[in-house]
């Protein structure tokens, strides 16, 4: 079963300050990751490149 949560739109976004906009978005993402950390970056192949002699952990 899938669940989608749709939040209200952000007020006054984007603003005039790109740094503050980035901080704001990062805080929102951090909150969502803390709520359900298992759903964050599950698609990312963090260990895609391995040193010579190490077993590849992802299917080709």
Automatic annotation (TrEMBL):
This is Lipid A biosynthesis lauroyl acyltransferase. Its EC number is 2.3.1.-. It comes from the Bacteria. It comes from Acinetobacter stercoris. Keywords: Acyltransferase, Cell inner membrane, Cell membrane, Membrane, Transferase. The keyword Cell membrane applies. It is found in: Cell inner membrane. The keyword Secreted does not apply. Its main location: membrane. It holds the Pfam family Lip_A_acyltrans. One of its GO terms (molecular function) is acyltransferase activity. GO terms for cellular component: plasma membrane. One of its GO terms (biological process) is glycolipid biosynthetic process.
């Amino acid at each position: 079963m899938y669940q989608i949560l749709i939040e209200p739109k952000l007020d006054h976004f984007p603003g005039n300050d790109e740094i503050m906009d980035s901080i704001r978005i990062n805080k929102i993402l951090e909150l969502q990751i803390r709520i359900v950390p298992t759903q964050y970056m599950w698609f990312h192949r963090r260990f895609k490149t391995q040193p010579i002699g190490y077993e590849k952990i992802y299917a080709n």
